[in-house]
Fold this protein.
Amino acid sequence: MDFELKSLSLAQADKLATDALVVLVPDTPALSSEAASALLELTQGVLKQGDLEQGVAKALMCYRPAGVKATRVVLVRAGDGSPSSVRKALLSATALVKTAGLKKMVVFLGLLESETAAIRSVMLACADATYVYTATKPTAKARTLTKVTIGVMDVAAAKGEFNMGQAALSGVEFAKEWANRPGNHATPTMLADAARQLGRKPGIKTEVLGLKEVKALGMGAFMAVAQGSAEPLRFIVMHYTGAAKTSAPVVLVGKGVTFDTGGISIKPAGEMDEMKYDMGGAASVLGTFAALAELKPAINVVGIIPSCENMPDGLAIKPGDVVTSMSGQTIEILNTDAEGRLILCDALTYAARFKPRCVIDIATLTGACVVALGAVRSGLFSANDDLADALAAAGERSQDLCWRMPLDDEYSEGLKSNFADMGNVAGRAGGAITAAKFLQKFTGTLNWAHLDNAGTAWKSGAAKGATGRPVPLLLQFLADQASQTAAAPRKSVSKRKPGTSVAVKATRKSAAR
Ligand code: BES
Ligand code: MN
Ligand code: ZN
């Protein structure tokens, strides 16, 4: 999808020849004392007559209104003009324009108090409303609306947000595409190839390890999950270098289970197809790298993706089996369906070698997180208040929300085992938290956070499909980190002890929260 930013006053908007001109109408339009404009008259007339229903996203399409050159004007309520209202408004306006089969539209933001704050939401919502999955359905009608011009009063002020929107968009679409692909079209090998493709972009390097290397590293937990599948495992390591080599990276770890049957602890048949998105964490890491290549922030990022299938088989792990993780800790596999934590724990151990400023893992880890938070917010877990706050803030800023969950030590009681250092599951209660407690046992002194996107990476129901979350959150976090590092005095960066953070202080390590 092609977006363009254009300087547009009300008077210019009147004269703009386009198939559809979408005007965002906030509760209190920011009206300057501008000269008479037909578009403004139309808007005010419609509001006065009550033709545009109250309520965010309510829209009215006017055909060939007098004095306006555009063939159609779509007036859409944008409430308080906040990013979330703007998003809803654009989803509804785009649906109208899409129905008419139009190829181009212009979105006019000049009536909003803050145009800049709206831009990213406009772009992501347009893309979302028009995305069509075609990889294994070539007969699907491809996206018709392909060109969107965003008209703002002040282009210079809007440029930064526009670039951010563009990058976020590429990342989200990349992540969606891979998470939507069925298991046989998104195997670990194929994911690795996608990562290699990204490795051709400037600033990105990709390395892929296979069974031999993973075995040499001693990743017993990861290998245990993969051993039940005929598909070979892949361990993908990506590097984005945007800052000096000496600058400690942020490490992103994404769960890449390309299909989760549950293994010998097999899942019920209903909706098992959806377990193709169990690489939603991996997809979000790949998507973030695609976005980084475009945004080019001054920061170093390492992406780690352990990828395999979780299958029942003659060679598959059995409940009760004990494996040795790369950290040396032994694990009793009480439930083979709790496989995500088994592949992630070795990836977390591996992450330490990069002496990262922080490590964030992203995983469709638990059904319990879906029960707790639904599809609105991802679960956020971290013992570090600064890191948790920074991630939560990035979520708000990018409208890709998360919610912090507790990590009290009492939650790890249930992980005790008589036959190994730990079991891989605790009871049903607090399942999203006990999973995070399991991961925490492999983080040592790392400044670590975990995002459970089981509920947010996928939409069920008629609009079934991947969402690309939490790419916007991750990109915002990385951009924030880059600008904070740039703002920090150079000395403090070079004097920093490896493994501790610059902008995110690795201090307050409270067990609870
Ligand atoms: N991939 C699932 C979690 C999941 C569930 C993701 C629903 C998306 C939607 C994970 O591997 C899993 O099966 N977790 C188990 C853990 C349990 C065995 C402790 C679960 O949530 O049931
Ligand atoms: Mn599972
Ligand atoms: Zn899983």
About this structure: The longest helix spans residues 155-180. The longest strand covers residues 300-310. The CA atoms of residues 441 and 509 lie 14 Å apart. Residues 2-154 form a domain with the Leucine Aminopeptidase, subunit E; domain 1 fold (CATH 3.40.220.10).
